[in-house]
Predict the structure.
Amino acid sequence: PTIDEAFDDTLMQNNHKAFTIECGSHDAYEEEFVDIVTNGICRILKLYGMINNAHKCNRCETVIFTEQSLLRASDGCYITFQKSAGEAFKKGDVLYTEHYPTNFNTKEIKADINGTILKTAPTHIFSAGDEVLHYIKEDHI
């Protein structure tokens, strides 16, 4: 393969192992993310046998999932998270609590299945329908 073929899907169309990453703004350098991205690439390369175990990558379990789901705020509210990214949960666990400032009520949002939190929103203030958290169902890992 040529270098030109590495920037589109030509490699994959010709049954070569390849991947593409998107890692943020091209006009900013955020040093704290360099190791995260580098180690992620290393884990993918190891998983597919493209580099050997002698290569020094941060050791971390690779998790492959086939689908993700998300939960949205049911109304304008403040949210406190009881689970964080990477944390496993069981059916019935409280994932987060919605606090409604208009009537001072709260509502616990409980898991209806087993899974793992993929990511939580970077805020605690939500409007109705805002994305609160993404999760992976246990049977999709």
Summary: Residues 34-47 form the longest helix (14 residues). The two ends are 33 Å apart (CA to CA). The chain is about 15% helix and 25% strand. The chain has a mean pLDDT of 81.
